Amino acid sequence: MIKTFSASQLKGMVSGNFPEITNNDNRLNLVSDREYAALDMNWVEDEAYNGYLKWLSIFSFGRNIKNSKWKNNWDCEDISEGFKLYLKLMHAEHNPNTLTERSEGKENESDAQSVAAGVIYFKNSAHSAHAINLFFDKEEQPHFFEAMYGEFIKINEEQRNSIWYANF
Question: Domain span at residue 114?
Answer without folding.
Answer: 4-167
